[in-house]
Write a structure and sequence with these properties.
The chain has 14 helices and seven strands. The chain is mainly α. The chain folds into two domains: 8-145, no CATH class; 159-325, Intergrase catalytic core (hpI Integrase, Chain A, Orthogonal Bundle). The chain has a three-stranded antiparallel sheet with strand order 5-6-7, with no helix packed on it. The protein has a two-stranded antiparallel sheet with strand order 1-2. A two-stranded antiparallel ribbon has the order 3-4. Helix 1 (24-36) runs antiparallel to helix 2, helix 2 (39-56) packs across helix 4 and helix 6 packs antiparallel against helix 8 (223-235).
């Protein structure tokens, strides 16, 4: 049977309380996911499932692995101009990361339906990968990932670009939010989630109560940020019962918490005024963490500042911090050249 999903949301105090797609099995899973996931992840899962079932057009019980491969093909279809491809992976359709995330959402749905065991679903149609020959003695069946995602380095801003962008911001509030990202390495959601009790001006620290994955941490931030924040709180922030630090300054939502789309609009407007081609909130965070590593901050300390659960996520800044690689290479080459210059060192084997 065919089925066309319809994404609907009910709100309470501007936050979604229920998200449905119009199918009892899928809606039960979304309710289950909503109790486990943070808001952005919940919305992403709902959107991914909406896209999948809109493309496939079948009920969950009728989905096969062939349908999953057809979905992948459709997602990879050319969506850019006839001669345009992304530099990172050479593809013209959706990025591999986006497709992989959508498949993970679909796989999560079927894993839930399988565990339930009473909804007529008997297998997960999303394979973990494709089977290939493995060396003898290696455990496991799946060897090749279903979607290969390139490991690309994020782009960072030069000091001149940061100064140009900061000059295009119009309020102390906007500058404080940007400085929290470019000087403290905070994520966009962490900036917007800050509450007044989370600020410790005397210690120049911020308590991140709503970090990624629900993890909390306390991080130091530059005195420059706290000076800008003080100007905002003293001169711009309207009187309101809301304890969120960053609120709307004008209009019908004056005094209400600033939304993610509102912050993106502020950043995009300043980027255009500064005549910069590309700049995002996450790029500001990457810039901060890269500069901290270049300045000699230990990788473990960068990990703590960033709020990474795994050190592997932080190692990318070893590649972004050019000075670290240059210094390590220079030190090693100097040692090699010193050995080669020693008397009696023969650079070629005797038989040559």
């Amino acid at each position: 049977m065919s089925w066309s999903p319809l994404l609907t949301r009910s709100f309470d105090d501007s936050h979604p309380q229920t998200i449905t797609l119009g199918h009892p099995f899928v809606d039960e899973y979304l309710a289950f996911a909503g109790a486990r996931l943070r808001l952005n992840s919940w919305l992403a899962v709902a959107f991914d499932l909406n896209v999948f079932f809109s493309v496939v057009g079948k009920e969950p019980e009728a989905i096969t692995t062939a349908d999953v491969f057809a979905f992948i093909k459709a997602q990879r279809a050319r969506r850019l101009g006839p001669k345009m491809v992304r530099l990172e992976d050479g593809e013209a359709g959706l990025s591999a990361r986006t497709i992989k995330r959508r498949l993970a959402s679909v796989s999560g749905l079927f894993a839930y339906l399988l565990v339930r065991g009473d909804l007529g679903v008997h297998h997960n149609p999303v394979p973990r990968g494709t089977a290939t020959r493995r060396p003898s003695g290696r455990p496991g069946r799946w060897a090749s990932p279903l979607i290969r995602t390139p490991r690309t380095l994020p782009r960072v801003l030069s000091p001149a670009d940061v100064d140009r962008f900061m000059s295009a911001l119009r309020t102390h509030r906007d500058r404080a939010m940007v400085e929290a990202m470019v000087l403290g390495g905070l994520r966009r959601c962490e900036v917007l989630g800050l509450r007044l009790p989370d600020i410790s001006p005397g210690e120049h620290r911020l308590f991140i109560a709503e970090g990624k994955g629900g993890h909390q941490r306390s991080v130091p931030v530059s005195k420059r940020f706290f000076a800008t924040l003080s100007d905002y709180l003293a001169n711009e922030r309207p009187q309101t019962d809301i304890d969120r630090v960053f609120v709307v300054l004008k209009g019908r939502r004056r005094g209400q918490p600033l939304s993610a789309s509102g912050l993106d609009e502020i950043v995009d407007g300043a980027r255009q005024r500064a005549e910069m081609v590309q700049l995002t909130c996450h790029q500001l965070r990457h810039t901060c963490l890269t500069r901290l590593r270049e300045a000699g901050m230990a990788l473990e300390a960068v990990q703590a500042q960033a709020g990474h659960r795994s050190i592997e996520s932080t190692r990318i800044y070893l590649h972004l911090a050019n000075t670290w690689l240059v210094e390590e290479y220079t030190r090693a080459v100097d040692a090699i050249e010193a050995d080669l210059a020693a008397p009696g060192v023969n650079l070629l084997p005797e038989e040559l």
